[in-house]
Amino acid sequence: MPEAITLFGNRESGNCWKGKWTADLLGVPCAWVEIDIFKGESRTPDFLAMNPAGQAPVARLADGRTLAQSNAIMLFLAEGSHLVPSDPFARAKMYEWLFWEQYNHEPTIAVRRAELKFRGKTEETVNPALLEKGETALARMELALKETSYLVGEALTLADIACVAYTRVAHEGGFDLAKFPHLQAWVARVERNLGLVAASEAA
Ligand SMILES: N[C@@H](CCC(=O)N[C@@H](CS)C(=O)NCC(=O)O)C(=O)O
User: Which of 61, 125, 169, 185, by CA, is between 20 and 30 Å from 201?
Assistant: First the structure.
């Protein structure tokens, strides 16, 4: 586990919170530097030197090395901790959710939220495929959470932290979590684990 990190993130971005929540849970001191991605601050020469992809989050270690990709940042922070199952199969199930989150969940739910909340799209003009694909992702989680309290069994893992990041604000993307009662209960459970005020109430 690193001694401390600096996280360059945007507070509206679930991807950016994943690393902060993980650091806080594990007691790793984490300084937050706010990056205004809407004003191009992730495309400046200094930022591109840290992450040539021009995206937040970026974690900077005390020795100056930098790491991008939200799930890679969490994995780096949590290696050897209780947030990563020691059993190889359970660990692989956690990876299954992490890869799925980046391919099926974030590109639909986070993108629809961003289109509606930040890019001036409306229910009429937003890409219609995003609603159906996002609901399919939520239904996939509901199915799993009928069986277990967390995505990988009965304990919180990085899979939950990754997947809760945009599920807890899915209503801002026009998704109705009331259709998914197990998922709704899981969001509240994980928010309690992370010490968060419920996003649905804060909104
Ligand atoms: N797969 C990346 C996605 C990162 C990403 O899309 N970052 C967005 C904020 S959520 C960003 O920085 N957008 C600004 C831009 O692309 O200019 C991750 O999980 O870290």
Answer: 125
CA distances, 120 to each of 34, 130, 175, 202, 203 (Å): 23, 16, 17, 22, 18
Residues 71 and 27 in one domain: yes
Name the pTM for this structure. Answer: 0.97
Which residues neighbour 103 within 8 Å (Cβ) at sequence distance 6 or greater?
none
The answer to whether position 83 is within a domain reads no
Distance 200 CA to ligand 1 centre (A): 23
Distance 147 CA to ligand 1 centre (A): 32
How many angstroms does the Cα of residue 57 sit away from the middle of ligand 1? 7
Say if residue 46 is in the same domain as residue 19. Answer: yes
pLDDT in tens, 16-55: 999 999 999 999 999 999 999 999 999 999 999 999 999 9
Residue 201: its pLDDT value, please? 79
> How many separate domains does the chain show?
2
Please check whether residues 52 and 111 belong to one and the same domain. Answer: no
